[in-house]
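Many introductory courses stop at the sequence. We go one step further.
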Amino acid sequence: MADATVDLLKSTYERVSSGAAAKSGSKTQAKFVVIDQNQVIERKRSSRVKNINGNATDAHVIDGLDCSIKDELLPRSKWHIFRVPGARHQADHDDRGPYYTPWTVSIGPIHYKKCGMEIMEAHKLRFLHRLLDKYGEPSSMLKSMEEAMRGLEQKTRDCYSEEFPHIDRENFTKMMLLDGCYQIELFRMSGRRSQGKLADDPIFETNWMPIHLGRDMLLLENQLPLFVLQELFELTSQSNDDGKASLSELALHFFEPFRPGKDATEIEQVERNATKQPHLLALFHSSFSPSTDSIKPPREIKRVNNYNTYPGKCWFYNAKLLENCGVKFTQKSGNILDIKFKKKDSAFHIPTIFLDESTTLVLRNLVAYEQSDRRVAPYFTYLVVFFSNLLHSPIDAEVLLQAGIIRQTNNNRTQVVDLFCSLGGDLHGFDMDNCYLHRVIDVVNSYTNSRWARIKAFPINHKPSFQEIILLFLALAVALFTAGQTKTNQTVAYPSPSSSHYAGVGG
């Protein structure tokens, strides 16, 4: 039996090896050594394998393949930058275009030299020359930056979930340099502008260009590793006039208009772990961590498993039903993740969320980032699930719009519902037991299940049918008839003292 198993593995490998050799045009030599008739050790000089995305990788020398995947076949580091799956690309799409690909400027290798971005490539070169002009020896500074990028080239490639064989080392290094310097100079000019200083660049002479650029720079597919930007920032910080502002501080100030709550960024909170973030979208995501009193430890799981409920559905009543139960909706300012429910006044306290073209795009990419990396706290995934439970119909959207919790330019209730419906579609890797809002949800459900809330909601939520109305009318008529009969009987049984019955007694 063991010999048959070895022969099967051997013949299977020979078929795979011959197919790979025919495709790559190279000869593959493999040798099998049987150890204890249970292990097959593969040795091959040259072969081409494919990674998870189907791209051909460099040849690996595999020793001791003990019927398992060898470390050489696995990624050398953890991926941080991903391409959004095609299904979500198609689902999250409108007349203006997709929400995950750049419209104005491409950053990084995924959309390298994308058609229609040629104008911004010229601006990147202009920004690089602008940066080098600050130094007495620009050629020396350029050489230092090029050497630094060459040293980070492989580390940068390892951050992506796919390979880019069409970009050679020279062009990849040039891309890192141009894209990195472009973003850094953009942040610096924006910082000077926020301080009331002259930005002195055509980009900041327009109102729409900084918004379009910032929006593209927060796309998951349009990222450079943050360590590339940090290296270039430190190399070029000798003659900047930004004071003591760090890269993360300048970047977060630039991205502040894209915060869905339009609240100020708490720089001090982010600075502690800023250098640990893999890219700018992750840095932006880290500035939304909920307050410490909002984060509760995961509750004790009472269910047998996490798969016997609809994920993200029916966690609590929708907004209109909650209002019928006596729940009030109150808007507040601040971090949009800090949602509270106070049972003493039966009120939700929810920060205002502004839904416009930019914040909608950013929300989609924040959720996509959380879905692509299990190490990221899924705060926005749970926020989307929370609003998806509140918003079942345009009537629910009207409740939140009137309360000022949702602000939208045209107050289109249907668009609000459709937005969170599409955001909440095809989400994975979350459960109410691990949701940072699970205590809030528990308190809400406790209140809506109380006797007082059900009594208050019954006459509103229960819509009687025609038969029930007829029966109610008949019951009311019978009750009135019975009351009239009772009053008549009482009058006959007990005549008044002035009647003739009592008149004869006195004689």
